[in-house]
Amino acid sequence: MKIFPYFCKSLITVFSLLAVGLLFSCKKKFTQTNASANHTSTATTSGLTTTATTYQLVWADEFDGSSVNTADWNFETGGGGWGNNEQEYYQAANATVSNSNLVITAKKQRVKSNAYTSARMTTKGKREFTYGKMEARIKLPLVQGLWPAFWMLGANINTVSWPACGETDIMEHINTDNIIYGTIHWDNNGHAQYGGNTTTTPADYHIYSVEWDSAAVRWYIDGTQYQEANILNNINSTEEFHKPFFIILNLAVGGNWPGQTIDVSKLPASMYVDYVRVYKGL
């Protein structure tokens, strides 16, 4: 999810690919009293199962209440395109909690100059993390013109701006495609990006995650790794990825990447988030 105009998704060949692992997490329930419990993460990569890091839960939102917990989340509001020529107006009213899910809904609803509304939530200033495993179990809408994302930005964005703050897109999806994208963005004498994609069934629940340490960022769906980015020793000016990041969940309507054609016959449409969990490596 860009905060500046979206660049081509073709890959920049700046990193080598490695194979490592992560756990396939299951559906709820999982309370904060489990925070001291450890687990060892394993994953399948190109048919090979490898043992990875032992993790400890450090924060989770299971969305078990009746509304969004504003002790953890901020609502970003407004229109103006959000750097991507998006068409929605973001407002808190479009994010609700129901049946132990966060529900972010895109609607055909005019607010000011915007013909659509949706929601965008961040943990900026409340829950920020350097390294770890970040995961969310999400079900996505398949609608032309929608752009749901689960991603992170560097906590120093107000000081250094984008892309020098760094960005990690854990999961992005557009339109009615069956493709999921994972990408990092940073400053290397100008905008640089690297990532990959894989296919799945986005209208079903899946666990989207990254495993992030001082050596690499690795992307997974349901415990299967599909891409890796090397950040060891700040290679290719990747020092952004050794500092704190915050989490973002949003559902954009239109934009440079999905295009400006919106299938209004499918609105309202919602992104369902069963949980968000963050672990630290031990």
Short description:
Helices cover 1% and strands 48% of the residues. It has one helix at 157-160; strands at 38-45, 48-61, 74-76, 88-90, 95-98, 101-111, 114-118, 120-122, 128-129, 132-139, 146-154, 167-172, 179-187, 191-199, 206-212, 216-221, 224-230, 245-253, 269-281.
Walkthrough of the structure:
With 282 residues, the chain is an all-beta fold. It has one helix at residues 157-160; strands at 38-45, 48-61, 74-76, 88-90, 95-98, 101-111, 114-118, 120-122, 128-129, 132-139, 146-154, 167-172, 179-187, 191-199, 206-212, 216-221, 224-230, 245-253, 269-281. The strands form 2 sheets. Strands 1, 2, 4, 5, 6, 7, 10, 15, 16, 17 and 19 form an 11-stranded mixed sheet that branches. Strands 3, 8, 9, 11, 12, 13, 14 and 18 form an 8-stranded antiparallel sheet that branches. It is globular and about 50 Å long. The model is unreliable at 4-36 and 46-51 (pLDDT under 50).
Identify the notable features of this structure and list them briefly.
19 strands; mainly beta; 11-stranded mixed β-sheet; 282 residues; 8-stranded antiparallel β-sheet
What integer is the average pLDDT? 88
Shape: globular
- Structural category: mainly beta
What's the helical proportion of residues?
under 10%
Number of strands: 19
Show unreliable segments: 4-36, 46-51
Distance between the termini: 30 Å
**Rg calculated over all Cα atoms:** 18 Å
N-to-C SSE series? EEEEEEEEEEEHEEEEEEEE
Q: What percentage of the residues does DSSP assign to strands (E)? A: over 45%
**Largest sheet composition:** 11 strands, mixed
The helix tally amounts to 1
